[in-house]
Amino acid sequence: MKQITVFLTLTFLLGLLTACNQQSVTTPVGIINIEKVSKETGNTDLIQKEMQNVRTRLNTNLQTLQKKLTTTIQESQKKMGDNPTDEQRAELGKTLTTVKMQMQQAQQSATTELKKAQDDLIVKLRKMIQPVAKRIASQRGMQVILFDNNNVVFGKDQKTDITDAVIAELKKQGGNLPEKK
Question: Tens of pLDDT along 61-83?
């Protein structure tokens, strides 16, 4: 039994030493802080402006729908008169439920559209940054590029962070997202 324990211990130590002697393979990585790039190239303001335009349009649409639905309810109440029958009250209840559901669906649709607009703008920003980042990373011998969103990447250093170089190159090119017309 003692021989088995010694053998297993030696095998474990030999494996550990072998693993320690192997060199790790690293792939040069470039990191870009997309928030900083967006801010310093003026794209944050453009994105905020576009998002405000979308919000304003959606809010106007929701207000228009709400007025229309309110009119529908008022017309139903007017038709019933001052002494509605039980059947008329039940019908008004159905109308109110339908109106409420229509408004909730419109609000959900507006929320979805707003999120999609935001996602589309971020994709545009990334597509604008990508060729510049690839070129800079390639010049520095980097094979992988990561976007550092909300400081998710840990352990980065000046050698891996290509944000400032990307910003400088984009500024030379006038790197703003195309405005919607």
Answer: 999 999 999 998 898 888 888 88
**Spatial CA neighbour of 36 closest among 178, 134, 159, 133:** 133
Q: What does the pLDDT look like over 90-99, one tens digit per residue?
A: 988 999 999 9
Q: Which region holds residue 63: left if phi is over 0, alpha if psi is between -120 and 50, else beta?
A: alpha
User: Under a CB-based contact definition with an 8 Å cutoff, are residues 26 and 141 in contact?
Assistant: no
Whose tokens are 């990585």? That residue is 29
CA distance 72 to 70: 5
Domains of the chain: 2-172 (3.30.910.20)
Confidence band (pLDDT; 50, 70, 90) for 58?
very high
Contact 116, 50 (CB under 8 A): no
pTM value? 0.71
Phi, psi of 41 (to 5 degrees): -100, 5
Read off the DSSP letter of residue 152. -
